[in-house]
Design brief:
This protein is of the alpha+beta class. It is built from eight helices and 17 strands. Keywords: Isomerase, tRNA processing.
């Protein structure tokens, strides 16, 4: 059974779900059907760049990979905002306050670190079983709770045409760049929105090594990245042969020599999944066989 990852360079105007549908269609055209396919982190329809797509058993790694560090190039416009906090929305507020470089540099430090961030109203967050963006489109009143995100750095990249300001942002999973535009503008005493976003990296996946959907149509199988390569930054642990059966049956055995945190688990030389070290006791988190 085919499994692994595709490093897709998503084009602006295409939803992440549409990319998954395209990949499924290309696989079927190559005689490969009945295989699970999914992306490991939504990229806004107006955004472009790296969208890792998992195929087969690799889809079991969604939760692990969605938390990986991501890098975005983005452009913010100040002096106005929209209902969606991006260029696709309707302008909802204006301000005459137009910050300059030094003003922006002064507020950036307060936006870095482990912070509580409120998602945009137009987001995929669930509210009583419904997507927030559906409620927003219907004009319904609702409140999204802040959630903890990790923002590692915000690099100021200069002013761009039309008065926008460019940034390169390194952050953890679950961070909304549109929310950073809103919060930065608020710190500057004005309004703001995100007019452009490109994801340049997601975990080990980089834009330099990505391929478009059109390039996948020219040959998809040779572009699949093995699971083992994607998990290479996790330490390796080889389970003692005498303990393999117990571990694979879910027994939390006490094993010696395990790395700290999450690691790749090998049984009889085969990558079996990801496991964790719980005070010397092994806990299998994700089975890959």
């Amino acid at each position: 059974m085919i499994c692994g990852f595709l490093n897709v360079n998503k084009k602006k105007g295409m939803t992440s779900s549409r990319v998954v549908g395209k990949v499924k269609g290309i696989l079927r055209a190559n005689g490969i059907s009945g295989v699970k396919v999914g992306h490991t982190g939504t990229l806004d329809p107006d955004g472009e760049g790296v969208l890792p797509v998992a195929v087969g058993r690799a889809t079991r790694l969604f939760d692990i990979l969605s938390e990986k560090t991501k890098v975005y190039y983005t452009e913010f416009v100040f002096g106005k905002t929209t209902d969606t906090l991006d260029a696709s929305g309707v302008v909802t507020a204006l301000s005459e306050v137009m910050p300059e470089k030094n003003d922006i540099l002064a507020v950036i430090p307060a936006l870095i670190g482990n912070i509580d961030q409120i998602p945009p109203a137009y987001s995929a967050k669930s509210v009583d079983g419904r997507r927030a963006y559906d409620l927003a489109r219907e004009g319904k009143e609702f409140e999204l709770k802040a959630h903890r995100v990790r923002i590692e750095s915000i690099e100021y990249c200069g002013e761009r045409e039309g008065g926008a300001h460019a940034f390169r942002i390194t952050c953890g999973g679950g961070t909304y760049i549109r929310s950073i535009a809103r919060d930065m503008a608020q710190a500057l005493g004005t309004y703001g929105y995100m007019r452009y976003i490109r994801r340049e990296r997601s975990g080990i996946f980089t834009i330099e090594d990505s391929c478009t959907v059109e390039e996948l149509e020219g040959g998809i199988v040779d572009k699949i990245i093995p699971i083992e390569a994607v998990l290479s930054d996790f330490p390796r642990y080889d389970c003692p042969s005498r303990e393999v059966a117990r571990v694979l049956n879910g027994v939390k055995a006490e094993l010696e020599g395990m790395p700290e945190g999450v690691f790749r688990l090998y049984c009889d030389g085969v990558l079996t999944g990801l496991a964790g070290n719980d005070n010397g006791t092994i806990e299998v988190k994700t089975r890959l066989i």
